[in-house]
Description:
- With about 300 residues, the protein is α/β, with parallel strands linked by helices.
- It has helices at about 1-5, 10-25, 75-85, 135, 145-150, 165-180, 200-210, 225-240, 270-280, and strands spanning about 25-35, 40-50, 55-65, 70-75, 90-95, 100-105, 110-115, 190-195, 215-225, 245-250, 260-265, 285-290.
- The protein contains 9 helices and 12 strands.
- Helix 2 (about 10-25) runs antiparallel to helix 3.
Amino acid sequence: MSTLATLSDQEQQFLDAFQQAVERDQFDRLILSQYKGELQDLEKMTWRVITLNEQRVLNCLYRYKTQDVTKNYPLEEALLQVTILLACCKQANLITVDEELQLKKNKKKAMLTRSKHKVSATQAKPAEQGHDRIKQRFVDQDSIFLQHLGITDQKAQIIPSMARKWKQINKFVEIFSGALAQIKPQAEGLRVVDFGSGKGYLTCALYDYIQKHGQTPYVTGVELNPKMVEFCQNVAQQSGFDQLDFFQGDVRTYAPEHLDVMIALHACDVATDFAIHSGIRLNAQIIMCAPCCHKELRP
C-alpha cells in the first residue's frame, strides 16, 4: 500500500479513470509500457476484461522479450496490481469506449492527456478497435511465437512471403473463436488434439488464443514427420507454451483418453475418417476437420 502514497496527481487521476471505466463497463483495454521494475525482460502489459466461469475478471498479457505470459485477476486485486505496475512504467494508455488517456512520465513530472473517440451510434463497443480490430480479436501480431515460426520479424512486422499464411491463421482462429464461445469453460482446462499439425502454425495459434482468453490449454500436435515434430517442440519451448507438445505419429498411433477439441485439417487419405471417429468416441465438444486427399484417386 506504500505505492499508493507516492502517486502523483496525474497517476491517481489515471487510476481513477481506469477503475471507473471497468465499473461502468466502458473499459476496452489498458497498456502499460516501458517497464523499468524488477521483473526481468518484461516489456509491456496489456489488460482486458474477460468472462471466466461466469465472472468478470481482468486478464493481463505480460509481454517478455522471449515469451508471453497471461494471468487473470479479480477486479479488486487487478486494481492493486495495476497501481503497483504503473509506478514502474514510463507510459500507460487507457482506452475506453469514448476516449483515450495517455500517461507519460519522466524524472521531473508526469503528463496526462485525453483524446476523444468519435463513435457512431450504430457501432457496438467491441467493434471500437480501429485498424487493429483483427489483431485484437484473434491473433496478436506481436506474439512471440509468430517470430519463432517465421511469420513476423524481430519488429513484429509480417514477413511479405508469409502474408497468406498470416491471413490463414487469423481466419482459422476466427472460426475457432465462434465455436469456443458456444461451449462452457472447462475448469480443468481445455484438451485439444491437432491431427496432422505440420509445421505448427495453427496449433501454436490455437494454444495462444485459448491461453489469452481465460482458459488453460492442453494442446497436442500429432505429426508423422520427425523433423517437423522437433521444430515445433522447439518453438513451443521458446514461446513459453508449457502445455503444448508434439507427438510423432498419426491418428491410429496416438490415442488420447480425453478430448474436448479435435482438429484434422491435413489428415490425408482415410485419416480424416479415423480422426472424426476419435472425436465422436471421446465425446469432443468441438470437431473441426476438412476432408483431405484420397491417395487412390490421385492417378
